[in-house]
Amino acid sequence: MASPPTGKPDPCLICHNPEGRLCVACHCVAYCSKECQRSDWRSHQKICPQLNTQPERPEDGEFKRAIVFKADEDKPRLVWLEVQRLQDPDSEGKTRTSTARPIADFLACTVDAVTGLGFQRNVRRERDLKHTLVVNFCISDTDKVNYCIREATDLRNFHDFSGAIIVSKFTGFTPQELECADVEAEDYLDITDFLVTFGDPEYRLQSHLLDSTRFESHFDLPDFRTLNLGPDTPDEQDAQVKEDPKEASPPLTPQDDKKMAKCVRIACMGDVLGGSVKFAQAELPLSDLTMYDASNVASSQAYYSSHISQLVGMPICLRRVMREHGEREADFFNPEATLLLTELMNTSSDNWGWPPPHWQAHYSVVGSVVAMREDGKDLTVQQVRNLCEFAQMVARPLTQTALEGEMKIVDCKNLYLTQEKMEDFARMKRLGMRE
């Protein structure tokens, strides 16, 4: 185990209080209080033991520490990345460091198939870095969802990365300054924050590159704001509406100036048989919520709040939309949407545990519906799919148990139909667990 250094205290990794105390296990990061340490522990514990157990730096060459997130592993790994010295074509007699070939070899692909994203600012914590961190991955390795990143970010990552990625560090910000350096324990917080914010509309207008620099390297590193992220789920059958990155904006509440919101259409059986995808991205004006309020239109056309979504912290409402296919009664079936409207708030109601009467005839003869967030924020296909599966696989069996008297209704609502249980369910689902 490394010995604790002596001298001036290190600043706190979380709040930058200058009177930080080093982690007693790795002696690499400092915290000023138990609260700051606890807030970072779920992240730090994934690399803390490795800081003392990583093999010694190889001596047969120049090697720098990097962090690898392999698609099928449950935690990131510290590795030694070989650095090559190349002649600088713009300056005779000078050399520059390159990790292009070692990274391509590690990812088992050609150099041309490797791309990267450089960042010099932590937009989540609104602070500039003192160096450049580079995330490299293989553009052809898209068949494996990266569960390691999901686990490292506690499922907070907006963009679902595919294949392995490797993160390296460079001093400086411009091509003339860049020199490969060791990734340190304190860099891990910035790395996970980047993985969390990457692609999130809330941060898309904020650059991960410093305004005063233009970062270039062997790889094409586009500005974060111009990236075309594609679908928000690895499932290729989901038809997504691709937005122009230049027009992208953070999610706003209805009282702001935002006019449109991303919604999700949940297709009925007839539309699915006719070729529609079950969950598809759509876009509607925010005024749709007031236009189709129950006070303005017939109940069969109005928006209805989803109680299960409110209980798990993602309030949405649904209304019926015109079907595209099918005329038989069975073509109207849409059990996923119907379960989202189950009465769960009023535990003393005779209707608790059941959808509204006009939605439950023949168990979900409702046709296709559209789901919109009540707070005006954008809604993704993956969020709605997770919510529907939670309603079907968790909420429905529990409500039936409560209705049969084997559990108190109030306990069912307050103990099991919660945001925490939803997050646990999403974690198990995304990690591929069955129970």
Show the helix and strand layout.
Blueprint: E1 21-22, E2 30-31, H1 34-44, H2 50-53, E3 63-69, E4 77-82, E5 84-87, E6 95-98, H3 100-106, E7 114-122, E8 127-138, H4 147-152, E9 165-171, E10 179-181, H5 187-197, E11 260-266, H6 269-273, E12 279-285, H7 288-291, E13 304-305, H8 307-311, E14 316-320, H9 335-340, E15 369-373, H10 381-403, H11 409-416, H12 419-430
Antiparallel strand pairs: 1-2, 3-4, 3-9, 5-6, 7-8, 8-9, 9-10, 11-12, 11-15, 13-14, 14-15
Helix pairs in contact: 10-11
Task: Describe the structure in your own words.
InterPro entries: Znf_MYND. This protein is of the alpha+beta class. The chain folds into three domains: 1-50, no CATH class; 54-226, no CATH class; 245-430, no CATH class. Helices cover 23% and strands 19% of the residues. The protein contains twelve helices and 15 strands. The radius of gyration is 25 Å and the shape is elongated.
Strand content: 15-25%
Helix content: 10-25%
Total strand segments = 15
Query: What is the average per-residue confidence, as pLDDT, rounded to a whole number?
Result: 78
Main β-sheet, in a few words? 6 strands, antiparallel
Radius of gyration: 25 Å
Write the H/E string, N to C: EEHHEEEEHEEHEEHEHEHEHEHEHHH
Class from helix and strand fractions = alpha+beta
Shape: elongated
Number of helices: 12
Total number of domains = 3
Residue ranges: pLDDT <50 for 5 or more in a row?
1-5, 214-257
The N- to C-terminal Cα distance equals 38 Å
Region (Disordered): 226-256
Keywords: Metal-binding, Zinc, Zinc-finger
Domain MYND-type: 12-48
Protein name: MYND-type domain-containing protein
